[in-house]
Amino acid sequence: MSIERAIRVSTARFAAAGLAYDAVSRRFVVGDVHGRKLMVVSESSDQAVDLVRADSAGFRDIVAVEIDGRRGDLWVATATSTGSDWTVHRMQLVSGRPLKTISESSDLEPLKLIDLAVSPAGDILALDGAGSRLLVLRPGGSTLEPVLRMAIQAPTSVAATGDERIVYVAHGAGVSRVDLKAGATTLVTAPPGLGLGRIERIRWHRNTLLAAQTDADGSRRIVRLELNTSGRAVTAATIVDASIPAAAGPTFVTVSGDELSYLVAGPDPSGQSSQDTPQDRLGEFVIHRIRLR
Prior knowledge:
- By secondary structure, the chain is mostly beta strands.
- The chain contains 1 helix and 24 strands.
- It has one helix spanning 54-57; strands spanning 2-12, 16-22, 27-32, 37-42, 49-53, 61-68, 73-79, 87-92, 98-103, 113-118, 124-128, 133-137, 145-149, 157-160, 166-171, 174-179, 184-187, 199-205, 208-214, 220-227, 234-244, 251-256, 259-265, 282-291.
- The strands form 6 sheets. A 4-stranded antiparallel beta sheet has the order 1-24-23-22, with no helix packed on it. Strands 2-3-4-5 form a 4-stranded antiparallel beta sheet. A 4-stranded antiparallel beta sheet has the order 6-7-8-9, with no helix packed on it.
């Protein structure tokens, strides 16, 4: 595995809210929470360009971004700054053109979407932190449907796998393997001395989980967790990158092919809506790339 810094970008009024990579156009897509917009950055540039903004897409504060590369769709979860009116947006990946908006139904409340994942068949899986639930939007569907309520606390991230039935969810006590068909949640075990707590983000790659993990002292690292054949136990862990700064903002991770990219978000420069943020405030994000094979 080799590590290289991909790009460093400064942009006005920026607070990161998700990272995805489009292998076809070779562009990163980054969400801006309070700017209520999506930006794109090409691999050969250090300039962020707006892809789509709230005035055309109806975004509120952006909380999650995911790409369905097989179908050319870009999915975005948004909500008001007070955590209401949750909406999932389907966009055309190449242009950012809004295609569909799915608003929450009242029977899902209380709701707090944390992360999105795309299954091989095109199901959009949404992780709900308020109810420790997995929700699904079927291809062509118009509503988010509850799939499973999990006996876990403080969920942080969801990762789809190559198996349509199986996903993994990171949470306060570690990582759980979720069988969507059986409705079963199993805590993934680990060798003695290997803790699976404090994971901010997980993504799937060739029977391994790639995790952004925070240590007790606030330092961060990218860890590769190898699983046994059943996917219920970690057999080995490799620190891929131990140099992640202890930034005030979250770390976002995306996998494309055999490459992992992660974004180290700086502190939120405002904590306010985009309309109230001073024009001269700058935020910075750095995207690192790791070649996994």
